[in-house]
Design a protein that fits this description.
505 residues, mainly alpha, 76% helix
Length: 505
């Protein structure tokens, strides 16, 4: 175990520290991507509505975004190594809850807890690397390796999730993150050379409270707006509260003696541009990935393994580009790499939107997802390097936390907006076209339930014919049909237990 160092007496970045920090950020990123190919499985098992499925991803990202700035301060004050170890343990605990979840609420709780762990891992891992690489070229190479770990985890997460959900219950997809979280805690404890920058830093409670209220209210209002109606008192009040709280955050940071986010950073053009690109780029990337996952799983009814393939392909080309990007970061202005990443991402998103809804071939998604993957690795590598290199070394913890905040909130905002727009449009299209049980199902569980009902009934009949002497037909149908009774919105979540059994009359 190595001794702690401060940012004023830096050593050269050692290999053990780099490996542990890359493992930490990979674990955090992997947990974001695990639900992607199994959103359809989650929706079916728990009878969840479209907005409830959107919360599975958003409830992980929300605490990650909210807490990253203050966790950056905690790392500066008490040492980033301790925060990395604690983050790995909390991440593992949250994923253990996911792996044993019996309803959608339990999964939300596990995701939120895992998100708190990820909030410690994202900024701390980057701050340790930045603090140990005072030379710009060395830092660019190290940050490129750190970003490559994010890309690799983004490929491994959906693949492992798809395989495990295909051969076993979908909850097994959350077991590898448990193991990885524990491995992060051990690796960081044994390998990381600690660093901190306590001078002039203190916990900023007014800033933390206002940013937490503002981002939570904003995300809740966006996700629930489609179901509750944009003109409802709850949604209008939530969005108004978000606006007031975010203005309060700016005021609190302006007056704070030791702000969690120094607003002067926004006066640095490179940092401000990186923050905007992080928000917009991750909003588009994760939002499109969520849209594809719902289309492949809940609409096209592909298996979890087949649904994971586009997400694996998404990262294959970027992994090959990583060595090239590492050299380009030391030779090319980060602004050009940011533009070079946003353009293919936009092209891929437009391409996916143009695919006919009747498309059932996975091959149709290869071209657009490759463009998305190329854009993703370019944006992540260059924006992180641009943001951290643009600030003085004693502010790297704050800069890495701020960059992580806007990146993670962009990832949370993507599924929220996409889900709201899609479900609202689908519900509007179904108005007046449903009757009887279908109308009740749409009212109780949303348009996804209507889309899936016929398919799941056919699957249930095929399964019963294949297993004439095993299982209970009623139990099988109960597992497959979400929220079947109009007027009982919670029925799906209550009845869809993985243990099976007869439905009580």
């Amino acid at each position: 175990m190595t001794d702690s160092i401060s940012t004023t007496s830096l050593k050269k970045l050692d290999l053990g520290t780099l490996i542990a920090c890359c493992l930490a950020v990979a674990a955090a990123q992997l947990c974001i991507t695990v639900p992607s190919p199994i959103n359809g499985e989650i929706q079916a098992a728990f009878g969840a509505s479209g907005s409830q499925v959107a919360w599975v991803t958003s409830v992980f990202i929300l605490p990650t975004a909210i807490l990253e700035l203050n966790f950056g301060v905690v790392g500066d004050l008490f040492g980033r190594k301790r925060l990395l170890v604690l983050g790995g343990l909390v991440l593992a605990l949250g994923e253990l809850l996911n792996a044993t979840s019996q309803n959608i609420t339990m999964m939300w709780t596990g995701q939120a807890l895992a998100g708190i762990g990820a909030a410690a891992l994202f900024p701390s891992s980057l701050a340790v690397i930045a603090a140990a690489t005072p030379d710009g070229k060395d830092r660019a190479k190290a940050v490129s390796t750190w970003a490559l770990s994010i890309s690799l985890a983004s490929a491994v997460g959906p693949l492992s999730s798809g395989v495990l959900a295909t051969v076993a219950d979908f909850r097994w997809a959350f077991v590898p993150p448990v193991v990885l979280g524990l491995a992060v805690a051990v690796a960081c404890w044994k390998l990381v050379t600690d660093s901190k920058a306590p001078e002039g830093r203190a916990l900023d409670w007014p800033g933390q409270i206002t940013i937490a209220v503002g981002l939570t209210a904003l995300l809740w209002g966006i996700i629930e707006g489609g179901d509750r109606g944009w003109g409802s008192a709850a949604i209008v009040g939530s969005l108004a509260l978000a606006a007031v709280a975010l203005v309060g955050f700016v005021v609190a940071e302006t007056r704070a003696a030791s702000p969690m986010f120094n607003l002067d950073l926004l006066r640095i053009p490179s940092f401000a541009a990186a923050a905007v690109v992080a928000l917009a780029g991750m909003f588009g990337f994760i939002g499109t990935a969520y849209c594809v996952s719902i289309r492949l799983g809940a609409v096209m009814h592909l298996s979890a393994l087949r649904a994971s393939m586009p997400f694996v392909i998404l990262q294959l080309i970027p992994l090959l580009l990583a060595p090239v990007l590492s050299r380009m970061l030391t030779r090319v202005d980060a602004r050009w790499l940011l533009m070079g990443g946003l353009l293919p991402m936009a092209a891929g998103q437009i391409w996916i939107a143009a695919l006919p809804i009747t498309t059932t071939s996975l091959a149709a998604f290869i071209g657009p997802v490759l463009l998305l993957g190329i854009g993703f690795i370019c944006v992540v590598s260059s924006l992180t390097s641009a943001a951290v290199n643009a600030v003085p070394i004693h502010m790297t913890g704050m800069a890495s936390g701020a960059t992580s905040l806007v990146r993670e909130f962009g990832q949370g905002l993507g599924p929220a907006v996409i889900s709201t727009i899609a479900m609202s449009a689908a519900s509007s299209a179904l108005v007046g076209k449903l009757n009887g049980a279908d109308a009740g199902m749409e009212a109780a569980a949303g348009p996804l339930a209507v889309v899936n009902a016929g398919q799941r009934q056919r699957q249930g009949r095929r399964a019963d014919r294949a297993r004439p002497r095993h299982g209970h037909r009623r139990g099988d149908l109960r597992l497959r049909l979400p929220a079947r009774r109009a007027g009982h919105p919670a029925a799906g979540a209550q009845e869809h237990r993985p243990s099976g059994g007869r439905r009580r009359r």
